[in-house]
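Posting here for the record, re: BJW.
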Amino acid sequence: MNDSRSIVILTGAGISAESGLATFRGPGGLWEGHRVEDVCTPEALAADPDLVHRFYDLRRGALAGVHPNAAHQALARLDEAWKGDLLIVTQNVDDLHERAGARRLVHMHGELTSAFCAACGNRVRWPDPLPPGSACVACHQPALRPDIVFFGEMPYGMEKIEEALSGCDLFVSIGTSGAVYPAAGFVQLARSYGADTLELNLEPSAGSHLFGESRFGPATSLVPAWVDELLK
Ligand code: BJW
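Prediction output follows.
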């Protein structure tokens, strides 16, 4: 593929699995010990803020012990080298893409290292534990919460993502089950604009049949090999 062309890359929990972060829906998944409705809706946050804040404090704390793997590094290499438009859209709330060096990146489901003010909407970098009732630095209300997109909330960056999808020549989905919308619908949107589509996953996902090409195996093998092919 000519390197002036436009690529959108969607990543999910599978790309961080080999760094030691649990996926959501596999065996031993992140939510085996937690019901999703206990931790991942605005209603659950309102009902038990201590539980939800503690859950995200633990995951934020775990980031220090994990490192970007060969798949994150390969995408950062592609981001650096690719002259055409490129956007990495991650559903992950970890910071492994940016620690690998990726720049053209959107965190559509929020970030563990950020806090969001439910009163004024301000977002602020927050690398530390976040007790419920912490005060917002902008409006001073005790309304800071984890900067995470819960079910029923609008993901971040949708305008930018839809614009990138509408102009892309290639859409690549890496390590995501295709169980959560709107991300699960990106492949169909990209196809409707005429893009080629490629899935890289450990095993076929729910939407595998929607992709023009699928390759199965661990992300740390598949992604560097695909990036090498593209940059050759
Ligand atoms: C490997 C690997 C290796 C493993 N190498 N691969 C009914 C129908 C349709 C939609 C809806 C509906 N009812 C409600 C909705 C909407 C709802 C939704 O989709 N619900 C579904 C349950 C049906 N969505 C929303 O509410 C979203 N907002 C929304 O829709 O707003 C309205 C709107 C939007 C846009 C336009 C207009 C209106 C918000 C969704 C928020 C999701 N939040 C979470 C939690 C984030 C915080 C946290 O981390 O705790 O995001 S849920 C969770 O799932 C997380 C993930 O980002 C997301 C996706 O999971 P992912 O990444 O795919 O992980 P897994 O575990 O599912 O899959 C891992 C994959 O990796 C597997 O395929 C493995 O094979 C693979 N793998 N090891 C390669 N080594």
